[in-house]
Specification:
Alpha-Beta Plaits, alpha/beta, 18 helices, 47% helix, globular, 7-stranded mixed β-sheet, 4 domains, N-utilizing Substance Protein B Homolog, Chain A, 4-stranded antiparallel β-sheet, 11 strands
Length: 417
């Protein structure tokens, strides 16, 4: 199966089962950057591609047919560095391997028609409503319009539709940003300081193989968006303290805490997903954080025997609406019903932290959501319901406005006895 066939197979799996495309993409070895671009791009521009299909296809295609059509249309309409004849021919050849000759001819006819009408399609697209033009669900556009206003809502959607670059954070336990940048420059790798965290993070060009970069195996850096740094900054871990990272996998925030402690404190990393703990352990080992205690546990029912902690970080599960640029399928998974389930879990995790936190301790709650119900509204309500806890600081990071993903962070403090 050629690279177009691999992309179509992953897209068909997503359409049929809802399986996160990122999980399948992690297993791709050959042509990974190109396949990732086709898959993530087609998911990102789903509404636009479906609108194109409604102009040429009478009936809703099956998931497999649609996957091949999306793969070809995305190349033709949105990948200017791919020749149209290659997009059509290679996609049709891939379709022939899994579809009948008649079905492959159908794919061929639709894609060749799109090549002929490319400029007409682009002109007509400018007249379409925002959900099609910006390829976002009506529900999210409406929510963000009410929350942020028209101009900011459009900028958020435009940011979400950009191809994300690779951002790394230097591991100060092993090297410095200047030393790492110099090492890469010597190897011909271009990197520039990230404007949101120029002393900590570097931005690389898209398509870079992270695991092949100098310093990766030695644990000199990790891939992380600068928005993540804010939760650990508000947590403010200090030497000699006992810290709990209650939703730790895959380990980015755990590392940032461990780096600050530098072995002069106790850090416990817990996660409810047992299958993610191996990845957490591997990441911490590569980064040189061998002293972290890693345990399997659920913050909604964490045993009081773990207590007491001076500081607890809760990076809770959420709707991910602040990180849609990196997880384009999250926009199509959003629903208020699922959000309400998240809210119940988020509150339960906050409640679970209460018996684990010392009097006078600090609790940091963070999400990668833009939705007030998961963020500022939830925290305000929880604090009102829990005497002895007070909100000391909160931040809402809107995607793109700082060149980062979106996030919400709140610092809650418990009164001393």
């Amino acid at each position: 199966m050629n690279s177009r066939g691999v992309a179509a197979d992953i897209l068909a799996g997503w359409l049929e089962t809802g399986e996160f495309p990122s999980r399948r993409l992690e297993k791709v070895r050959q042509d990974r950057a190109f396949i990732t671009e086709m898959v993530q791009g087609a998911v990102r521009w789903k509404a636009l591609l479906d609108w194109v299909l409604t102009r040429t296809v009478r009936r809703e295609p099956s998931p497999v047919h649609k996957a091949f059509l999306w793969t070809g249309l995305y190349q033709i309409l949105l990948m200017d560095d791919v020749e149209a004849y290659a997009a059509v021919n290679e996609t049709v050849e891939a379709a022939k391997a899994v579809l009948s000759r008649k079905d492959a001819d159908f794919i061929n006819a639709v894609l060749r028609g799109a090549v002929r009408e490319k400029e007409t399609i682009r002109t007509l697209l400018k007249e379409q409503p925002l959900p099609i033009r910006l390829s976002h669900p009506v529900e999210l556009i409406g929510r963000w319009l009410r929350q942020f206003g028209q101009a900011r809502m459009v900028r958020i959607c435009q940011w979400n539709n950009e191809r994300p670059g690779v951002v790394i954070r230097v591991n100060r336990l092993k090297t410095s940003l200047a030393a790492l940048a110099g090492r890469w420059a010597g190897a011909g790798i271009q990197a520039s300081p990230h404007p949101a965290a120029p002393e900590e993070c570097l931005t690389l060009s898209r398509g870079v193989s992270v695991s092949g970069l100098p310093g990766y195996a030695e644990g000199e850096f990790l891939v992380i968006d600068p928005s993540v740094l804010r939760s650990v900054a508000l947590l403010d871990p200090r030497a000699g303290e006992r810290i709990l990272d209650g939703c730790a996998a895959p380990g980015g925030k755990t590392f940032l805490i461990a780096e600050r402690l530098a072995g002069r404190g106790t850090l416990t990393a817990m996660d409810a997903s047992a299958d993610r703990l191996d990845r957490l352990r591997d990441n911490l080992k590569r980064l040189g954080c061998d002293g972290v205690e890693v345990i399997h546990g659920d913050m909604t029912k964490a045993p009081p025997s773990l207590a007491p902690f001076d500081r607890i970080l809760l990076d809770v599960p959420c709707t991910n609406t602040g990180v849609i640029r990196r997880r384009p399928d999250a926009r199509w998974r959003f629903s208020e019903r699922d959000m309400r389930k998240n809210i119940g879990q988020q509150k339960a995790m906050l409640n679970g932290a209460v018996p684990l936190l010392k009097p006078g301790g600090t609790l940091v709650y963070s999400t990668c959501s833009l939705e007030p119900e998961e963020d500022e509204q939830l925290v305000a309500e929880w604090v009102r319901e829990h005497p002895g806890f007070s909100l000391k600081a909160e931040e809402k990071i809107v995607p793109g406005e700082t060149g980062t993903d979106g996030a919400y962070v709140a610092r809650i403090e418990r009164a001393p006895r």
